[in-house]
Amino acid sequence: MNKVLNFSAGILLLSCTAYSYASNTSGVHGPGVKADERSIQLRLALSPSDENGEPDNWAYRLHYEHAFNDEFRGRMILQYRDRGNFQYEYIRGELLYNFKKKADDGKWSSGVRFDIRQRRSDNPEMFAINWTNQWDLSNGIRVRGILIGAWEFGSDRASNGTEVETRGSVTKKLEGGLTIGVEMFNDFGRVGDFGSFNNQSHQIGPMLGGSLGGLKYEVRYLAGMSNGSRDHNFGLRFNKSF
Predict the structure, then answer these.
(1) Cα–Cα distance, 80 to 90 (Å, whole number)
(2) Element at 30 (helix H, strand E)
(3) pTM for the predicted model, two decimal places
(4) How do strand 108-119 and strand 86-100 relate by DSSP bridges?
(5) Cα gap 191→154, rounded to integer Å
(6) What is the pLDDT of residue 103?
(7) What does the alpha-carbon distance between residue 67 and residue 57 come to, in Å, rounded to a whole number?
(8) Which of 6, 113, 117, 140 sits at a 20 to 30 Å CA gap from 54?
(9) Cβ-based neighbour number of residue 238 at 10 Å
(10) CA-derived radius of gyration, the chain
(11) Which parts of the chain are beta strand (E)?
């Protein structure tokens, strides 16, 4: 148990988000897949301007996900942004493989997710591999840690090398169905060119989740901890399973 907690803490200390200065719509996703699972989700995020004259960043993201069986789940994502004008940003396809199920007497589950993203205009496309892990501990406590490698392609503006990110969260389920927790995101930059802490993107903050009828919701605040992140990021999401 101590080894698991130490490993989890190590991931979380590293994790704190990608795409500096942008509204963060990302989440700390788990590896679990349930057969016949289907849902639609709406995410909204706001990063207020840190400087006079700089526009606020709004982001709007719509998901549809479908589990093919109890191991594989696909997801399609469409995202728009508003930085003074409303515009398409990207469409992304994801495939999650839940290769390690939590045994009846175990706590750890793991999976790998493959993402491919087509972005607006002449912005480069992106391919990413996410290794996601979850530990279900006692007293309703859940720990998640994710390691991400990403590569750009398909444009003269594409950068060379592997972009490295980590994400982490610790949450606790309360009586009445509420969940509280802390989420952390890190974008280190490209391997061999990580630079200083302040040149990277680091964010951390609290979250609260629950349900109203058959609709799940989550609210979140992230504080920027480096110069590579905006000072504040607010998020709201709604999820409907069917």
Answers:
(1) 7
(2) none
(3) 0.88
(4) antiparallel
(5) 20
(6) 82
(7) 32
(8) 117
(9) 14
(10) 18
(11) 38-47, 57-67, 72-82, 86-100, 108-119, 125-136, 141-153, 163-173, 179-190, 201-212, 215-224, 232-241
Distance of CA 183 to the CA centre of its chain: 9
Judge residue 181's burial from the number of C-beta atoms within 10 Å of its C-beta, 0-12 exposed, 13-18 middle, 19 or more buried. buried
Q: Judge whether 94 and 75 are in contact, CB under 8 Å.
A: yes
The sign one gets for the Cα dihedral 226, 230, 235, 241 is: negative
Q: List residues bridging with 219 in a β-sheet.
A: 208, 236
Range of the domain at 149: 2-241
Nearest to 28 by CA among 162, 134, 158, 155: 134
Q: What is d(CA 152, CA 193) in angstroms, rounded to the nearest whole number?
A: 15
- Report pLDDT for 54: 80
If one counts the domains in the chain, the total is 1
Rounded CA separation 238/218 (Å): 7
Cα atoms in the 13 Å half-sphere on the side-chain side of 239: 14
In a structure prediction context, what are the per-residue pLDDT tens digits for the chain, which is 242 residues long? 444 444 444 444 444 333 445 789 999 999 999 999 999 999 999 999 877 778 899 999 999 999 999 999 999 999 999 988 899 999 999 999 999 998 867 899 999 999 999 998 889 999 999 999 999 999 999 999 999 999 999 988 898 999 999 999 999 999 888 999 999 999 999 998 888 898 899 999 999 999 998 899 999 999 999 988 889 999 999 999 99
The residue written with tokens 């964010």 in the block is 203
Tell me if 170 sits within 8 A of 141, measured CB to CB: yes
Read off φ and ψ for residue 166, nearest 5 degrees.
-135, 155
> For residue 212, what are the β-bridge partners?
215
CATH of the domain at 63: 2.40.160.40
